[in-house]
């Protein structure tokens, strides 16, 4: 398998594609980006396993094997020139589906295009067509001025994230992130499966939960004992067994060499700051947070947009590698930063 296409969720303009790249790095898969379009990322990777990636990703719909990208008028010819027919087992059934992204290529009749693509494939072999439960789903994605042809290899089970939405958990807090977004932060931190993960402002454990379900051994710290109790309830309820929860101020951390850190410090009206001013929270805790991270490990941390976190980290052994802006609601915009620990 060499070329993969990811159909991204579109929930944020930059985080979904960055999550894919971070997940590839966490799995130590070689990769090279071929093309990045709105909600569609195509890359080359000689060793990436779509199923493994589908178990990680939070802001992606599915992963397919890429065969060609072309202008609409050249699509049928491009299919003939690709190795799609050789790839499809002749004993298996197929279905062709057309997916339009947003308002792109509105002049194209999707049903007509689906039939033309199917007819071209059926010229080569009399495949069984099964629209309900096919062995192979062939997608044509309409995006900008292109048609991207791919064969589905793995779906992300987004219903599992729906089951873990905050109101459905044993313990609830109003500032808890949605589970697929929390999973994206865990992935942006390049969290290894079976690695060690830390959230120094864990609250009721929304981010810890996603890291634990990924397979990491999780460490959660919070100054509020009631929130720690809630985190334990949520982790146990989800079947996460390897965790260490501590009632402690993050500035007093005594943890060394974790593989990854992702955290959403308390800065909104719904969050408890323990009486600390916003800037003080970051300035007083970043020394212990950064020293808890192993050399080469990643920290993913959120901060309100009015806070100059880039200036605060100048004296810490952290190098900024990513920054994403997110509007939470009309009175709060936050930045999602990813830092890499560079020195001891």
UniProtKB/TrEMBL annotation:
Belongs to the methyltransferase superfamily. Trm-G10 family. One of its GO terms (molecular function) is tRNA binding. PROSITE patterns: N6_MTASE, THUMP. InterPro entries: DNA_methylase_N6_adenine_CS, RlmKL-like_Mtase, SAM-dependent_MTases_sf, THUMP_dom. This is tRNA (guanine(10)-N(2))-dimethyltransferase. GO terms for cellular component: cytoplasm. It comes from candidate division MSBL1 archaeon SCGC-AAA382F02. Keywords: Cytoplasm, Methyltransferase, RNA-binding, S-adenosyl-L-methionine, Transferase, tRNA processing, tRNA-binding. Coiled coil: none annotated. It catalyses: guanosine(10) in tRNA + 2 S-adenosyl-L-methionine = N(2)-dimethylguanosine(10) in tRNA + 2 S-adenosyl-L-homocysteine + 2 H(+). Catalyzes the adenosylmethionine-dependent methylation of the exocyclic amino group (N(2)) of guanosine at position 10 of various tRNAs. Acts via a two-step process that leads to the formation of either N(2)-monomethyl (m(2)G) or N(2)-dimethylguanosine (m(2)(2)G). Monomer. The keyword Thylakoid does not apply. The keyword Zinc does not apply. SUPFAM superfamilies: S-adenosyl-L-methionine-dependent methyltransferases (SSF53335), THUMP domain-like (SSF143437). It is found in: Cytoplasm. Pfam families: THUMP (PF02926), UPF0020 (PF01170). Residues 47-153 form the THUMP domain. GO terms for biological process: tRNA methylation. Its EC number is 2.1.1.213. Gene3D superfamilies: 3.30.2130.30, Vaccinia Virus protein VP39.
